[in-house]
Amino acid sequence: MNVAELFVKCLEAENVTHIFGVPGEENEAFLFALEDSSIEFVPCRHEQGAAFIANVWGRLTGKAGVCLATLGPGATNLITGVADANLDKAPLVAITAQGGLDRIHHESHQFIDVVNMFRPITKWNGNIPSPRVVTEVVRKAFKLAEMEKPGATHIEISEDVASLDVPGKPVPMKPGRVRRPASDYKALAKTVDLLRSAKKPLVLAGNGAIRKLASKHLTEFVTRHNIPVAATFMGKGAVSDRLGQSLFNIGLGFKDYVLEAVEESDLILAVGYDIAEYPPQRWNPGSDKNIVHIDFDPAEVYSHYDPEVEIAGDISAAIWELNKQLNDSNLEFTDWYKPVRKRIKDDINSYRLKDGDPFTVPGSLLEMRDILEDDSILISDVGTHKMWIARNYPTYCPNGCIISNGLASMGIALPGGIAASLLNEGRQIVSVMGDGGFMMNSQELETAKRLGVGYINIVFNDNDYGLISWKQYQHRKRSVSTRIQNPDFKKYAESFGIAGYRPESLDDLRSTLKKTIENKELCLIEIPISTHVNNELIDKLKNWWS
Description:
Blueprint: H1 3-13, E1 18-21, H2 28-35, E2 40-43, H3 47-61, E3 65-69, H4 73-88, E4 92-98, H5 114-118, E5 124-127, H6 134-146, E6 152-158, H7 159-162, H8 185-197, E7 201-205, H9 212-225, E8 229-231, E9 246-249, H10 258-264, E10 267-271, E11 291-295, E12 309-312, H11 315-325, H12 338-349, H13 361-371, E13 377-380, H14 384-392, E14 401-403, H15 413-423, E15 429-434, H16 435-440, H17 444-451, E16 456-461, H18 466-476, H19 489-495, E17 499-501, H20 506-519, E18 523-528, H21 532-545
Parallel strand pairs: 1-2, 1-3, 3-4, 4-6, 5-6, 7-8, 7-10, 8-9, 10-11, 11-12, 13-14, 13-15, 15-16, 16-18, 17-18
Helix pairs in contact: 1-2, 1-6, 3-4, 3-15, 8-11, 9-11, 13-14, 13-20
């Protein structure tokens, strides 16, 4: 057995079923070792697309998605997807090849120091210097990638090391379950005291609250005691937006209606809140909020986020323990937040399209939401549409809406839909993107077609880098350097052998969405949009807050 073959056996022991990547000369031994394994290697059309598929795979499963590239440009092309996974707390293991050890001590073809390059964007990374350490390196990469808080790790393997014989009969290390520490009883007791003295507590649910048990216990907690929940972009679905306690989402760069409840609250329970996603000065500008921090790790040192209590440990266990300690309590808060929830719901519904109206992002989202089932998955790219999805797309289950909001990378939605489709064959899946984000990884339509997956790709087309235009307009009342031109998206889709649609009326939009979503048809739907609602929203909110 050589090193590559042992490496693959270790991946099988980690229950890896798919690896996404681009083949290269220097990972030849590894690819041939995969051929005889239970793992399917999926050739992608760009390493970034492969990394994004692995990224969303990790987000949806909690188990590391795996991506592969060769040395040099292959490795550099992985960087954005790997960095995105690390900042979005998605478990991912990246594997890259390297030139032979006999040439990397001096300048040589395609050689760069990949390990040092990946160090700032991973939880841990390293290479395999010897056949004797393969089992430990692989186990460490997966353990650290999946351990809370999850993130990206990286393994480099040189082409000559990959072909070396392994002495003896090594056995892959078996994955073991790591039990996270229980919450400190004093911190829990103080939290209970703070809740009993509070009048208007509010939960700020972040990325960490998406975990299934955390979501279950959090839902029980807020419904039993009537505590409102505002979720960050990546916390969408931690508590169903159907619940009366949901205040939908927080996270826009300007003051939205939900901030009224935050300002009025006298106790913020930050559950799985991730500062990388939404800085606390946006919701705690006076640094005066009474905060309880409930997360896997202690709180970051931040002047606008200085918790009264820190409960560091397993989030679901902490919420479960709070439920237990308050079980016999008659603690139930008033409906103080209900006017805010009604205002948010009414505003979302105000964007309903009428016959003859130009298509808009929020109007189109309402049409999608009418058709999509409660357990469907929407994957959002990055752009203006992301803001509207976060704000106006109700989500009813954990991971029902996947948004990259740590690194916030354009180009994630189309490849992300491949991961979602492979993992959830029976569910309705929609990837939503702007024309800019679509063109960054549109080549992965071929990968999706080859794999035979079925999901809907929605492209909102304004021939612009719309989010930048929107922000420039807010600052300067005009935009520059953002306009772009696009191909005929319908014909572009058809060139890949999939259906392309361009609805021209509201009835056409509704029938196209209904047919493609219900049939789980791999297709592309271009929706030409008017962006007038963007600045109208800003003006409306400014007037409301003034």
